[in-house]
Design brief:
Oligomer: single chain
Order of helices and strands: EHEEHEHHEEHEHEEEHEEHEHEHEH
Number of domains: 2
Structural class: alpha/beta
Radius of gyration: 20 Å
Strand content: 15-25%
CATH architecture of the largest domain: Alpha-Beta Complex
CATH class of the largest domain: Alpha Beta
CATH topology of the largest domain: DHBP synthase
Number of helices: 11
Strand order of the largest sheet: 2-3-7-4-6-5-9-10-11
Bound molecules: threonylcarbamoyladenylate, magnesium ion
Largest sheet: 9 strands, mixed
CATH superfamily of the largest domain: DHBP synthase
Shape: globular
Length: about 325
């Protein structure tokens, strides 16, 4: 696999020509977005999109996110005309939010046969430039092997897919470290299909519509992908609420590693991985998936992870942590 290193703020477009040629020729390329690394292919080419499913080992009934770089592209590939929602999207995009709407001119492979498409304009100079140079919408799920945590560093992609794909664009660590918020606007309501960096509070404030958290209950739209076990390390991960519980679990579980806030780390003497400050949950989000991979590669047998407050991006952080810890 070829590794092309680029400045994430000011990428040299000349160094992205080869990547865009691969996309145009129906190949796959891994590239950074502001959320996590994606594994991209021409969204209008079903055969190319199949290669994404093959490389990741992704179940074919789990649709991909289609990345665009303009509203012109949005209108070409969607059939969606809710002015109230569109006005807000013009403010939010490019950014870490994905919209599920009726599709147009998109095949059945990237959308897993649904009549809707999950579409987003990523807020990352490399991703936007790659779409521009390819002249195509780019279908891209997270660039991890199916079942592994999403990649937030080029090294994660190389570890998972290094022998399966022709190229990765290395733009350093991704900014948010959690996958985009996936929403579906339906009948004057915004359904959150997958929590992400854009929080429920921010959605309510921006859209001024009722925001409904999809918990998998009947009658509430869901993202097909949310039924799969995700984000989970192979090692056992236990959720702990507060220092006392951490200490208790640490003493009960020999050879364990505590994944915790800096504030907790200051009071805890044992083996630890600092996720970030409780006062800056964006820092915790950025380090979360790396901590899962670190635990798996370490010699520790068990992970104990601190519970964080479910405010702002903390809601998405806890969504991922609960999924990762759910198998215990
Ligand atoms: O931040 C992100 O969203 C990253 C970067 C690369 O953009 N992408 C990402 O893609 O996380 P992926 O494939 O790992 O997650 C896409 C999620 C899945 O849960 C999938 O089921 C859901 O979006 N999804 C895709 N199309 C959908 C549709 N038409 N209706 C409902 N859910 C859909
Ligand atoms: Mg994924």
């Amino acid at each position: 696999m070829k590794i092309v290193k680029l400045d994430p703020i000011n990428p040299d477009p000349n160094k992205m020509i080869e990547a865009s040629e691969l996309i145009k020729n129906g190949e796959v390329v891994a590239f950074p977005t502001e959320t996590v690394y994606g594994l991209g292919a021409d969204a209008t080419n079903d055969k190319a999109c199949l290669k994404i499913f093959e490389a990741k080992g992704r179940p074919p009934d789990n649709p991909l996110i289609v990345h665009i770089n303009s509203f012109e592209m949005f209108y070409k590939y969607t059939d969606f005309h809710d002015e109230r929602v569109l006005k807000v999207m013009e403010e939010i995009w490019p950014g870490p939010i994905t919209l599920v709407v009726k599709k147009r001119n998109i095949g059945n492979v990237p959308t897993a046969g649904l009549d809707t498409v999950a579409i987003r304009m990523p807020g990352h100079p490399i991703a936007l430039k790659l779409i521009e140079l390819s002249g195509k919408p780019i279908a891209a799920p997270s660039a991890n092997l199916s079942g592994k945590p999403s990649p937030t560093k080029a090294s994660h992609v190389i570890a998972d897919l290094g022998d399966k794909i022709p190229m990765i664009i290395d733009g350093g660590d991704t900014f948010f470290g959690l996958e985009s918020t996936v929403i579906q606007p339906l009948q004057d309501k915004i359904y959150i299909l997958r929590p992400g960096p854009f929080s429920p509070e921010e959605l309510e404030e921006k859209f001024k519509m009722k925001v409904i958290l999809s918990g998998g209950t009947d009658n509430i739209p869901r993202a097909p992908g949310m039924k799969y076990r995700h984000y989970a390390p192979n090692k056992k991960l236990i959720l702990a609420d507060g220092l006392d519980e951490i200490l208790k679990l640490y003493n009960e579980n020999p050879n364990s590693l505590v994944l915790c806030s800096r504030e907790t780390a200051e009071k805890f003497e044992g083996n630890k991985f600092i996720l970030g400050s409780r006062e800056n949950l964006y820092e915790v989000a950025r380090n979360l998936f790396h901590s899962f991979r670190f635990l798996d590669e370490s010699n520790y047998s068990v992970g104990i992870i601190e519970k964080f407050q479910e405010i702002g991006i903390g809601y998405a952080i806890m969504n991922r942590i609960k999924k990762a810890a759910s198998k215990n």
